[in-house]
Design goal:
The chain has 231 residues and is α/β, with parallel strands linked by helices. The chain has helices at residues 2-5, 10-22, 28-43, 105-108, 111-117, 128-141, 153-156, 159-167, 216-222, and strands at residues 48-57, 67-71, 76-89, 94-101, 148-151, 172-174, 181-182, 214-215.
Length: 231
């Protein structure tokens, strides 16, 4: 970029651009919003909002958020940074509209590392699904064209994440573990017990021998037609 902007003094321009990225006060959210405003009209119909995270392998321990955690690029646990993102997409194109570095517990609670890396006081620990849900809320507030929310089981296993998507008025297709339990049609939980004249009426849903939750893998294999994959 420096060579393109100032080919005759690329070295000096590189230093000034590095200072801008590393030290100057600027908002990555505002930059993403400007890019979104410029690019979205060219994408035409949006079909999906894709929630995902990206791992960046690292060797040292000083980069913000670096820790031993799962890295998608390597397919295993290793030393890396992880960023959570939401992208809008259709059959032809995709565009990131939300992007945030994940800050592990060991970083969020280490005052010395935070100070050295200049992590703002306003940035604390949040799970990846909580970060993604906040990005979805921001997209809704910005009136981004709606698509079906897609995510793998790393997000889909979180019940609060799925409930949060529904609360935003969005539909979703997310991965879940086969051991996740649900109530099959015709075997839904029984209503709370009524007032029997002793104590307060019940508030908890009830089950019996025929009204029990079932794991989704068993439910998928019990469905008619082609069997669904559950893992």
């Amino acid at each position: 970029m420096a060579a393109l902007v100032a080919p005759q003094r690329a070295g000096a321009k590189h230093q000034s651009m590095h200072h801008f990225v590393a030290k100057a006060q600027w908002s990555d959210a505002a930059l993403l919003a400007a890019v979104r405003a410029a690019v979205l009209p060219a994408l035409r119909a949006i079909e999906a909002w894709i929630v995902d995270d990206t791992g960046y392998p690292k060797k040292g321990k000083h980069s913000v958020g670096v820790a031993r955690q799962y890295c998608g690029q390597l397919g295993k646990q290793d030393n890396c940074q992880v960023a959570v993102s939401v992208s809008v997409a259709n059959e032809r194109s995709s565009l990131p509209i939300g992007y945030q570095l994940y800050l592990p517990h060991e970083w969020a609670e280490d005052a010395s590392r935070r100070k050295k890396a200049e992590v703002p006081a306003s940035v604390g620990f949040a799970t990846k699904s909580a970060i993604a849900l906040e990005q979805l809320r921001a997209a809704r507030a910005a009136r981004v064209p709606v698509g079906v929310v897609l995510a793998d089981a790393g997000y889909g296993n979180d019940t609060d994440f799925r409930l949060g998507i529904t609360a935003l008025g969005l539909t979703y297709a997310v991965g879940i573990q086969g051991s996740t339990t649900v109530w099959a049609e015709g075997h839904q939980p029984l209503p709370p017990r009524g007032d029997w004249g002793r104590g307060r009426p019940g508030t908890r849903l009830r089950g019996n021998r025929t009204h029990q939750p079932i794991d989704v893998k068993a439910l998928a294999h019990a469905l008619p037609g082609p069997r669904l994959a559950a893992y």
